[in-house]
Every structure is written in structure tokens, then in C-alpha cells.
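It is worth pausing here to work through a concrete case rather than discussing structure prediction in the abstract. The textbook approach is simple: state the sequence, then state the predicted structure, then interpret. We follow exactly that order.
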Amino acid sequence: MSDVRRLTCIRCPRGCQLEAVVEGGSVASVTGNGCPRGAVYAADEVCHPMRCVTTTVVVDGSPLDAVVSVRTAGDVPREKVADVVRALSDVRLTSPVHVGDLVLADVCGTGVSVVATREA
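Step two, the predicted structure:
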């Protein structure tokens, strides 16, 4: 039995409206994509969704703010997003913090690091 998933592609600014036909746990076909990236996005999103995680981390001794924004340096599996946020809730940095500084390596065993996105 097939299932149709409707998605909005986020691989480029066009935002194509995609329809992915899922059969047997994999994407059998994709329509609506204006470029090949849309088909790849649909297959990834249906079969193995990934997300970039952004949050804040406490900074001790910061003259500007008590927190600094951080993000994963790459995408992590969607099912690990809550685990990543929980892991970061215990992290405390010491000022000064610079954009790109490593905050947490290999977060939750994903192979992805978390980096600062702001000075503090």
C-alpha cells in the first residue's frame, strides 16, 4: 500500500510543493520539485529526517549577557533533538566566548559538534 506525503522543499528559496509517494518504507516517486535537490530532500525527510538545533547556553562572567546562542555545526537526526537540548542545558561556558568556539563535541554521539554563534 502506498502513502502520499506532502512537503515544502527547503533546499532552495523556491519552496517547491512536493508530493512523495511512499511504498514499503521508501520513496517511490517525487513530483512538484523544480530541481533534483527536491527529490533528494523528500527522500531524506520521509526516510531519515534531520534537523539543525539552536538554543542558548549559560555564560559565566559575561559582561554583556548571561547566555550565548549556540547551534549544531551540522544536522542531527530529528529523534535526537530533545536529547541534544537536554545535553546543552547542563553546559556552562566561561567568558570570553567567540563565534565558532566549540561548545560541545560529538553531541549525544551524533558526530556533530555544537558551536557558539555569538560573542559573550
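Step three, interpretation. The chain has a mean pLDDT of 94. Helices lie at 36-47, 81-89.
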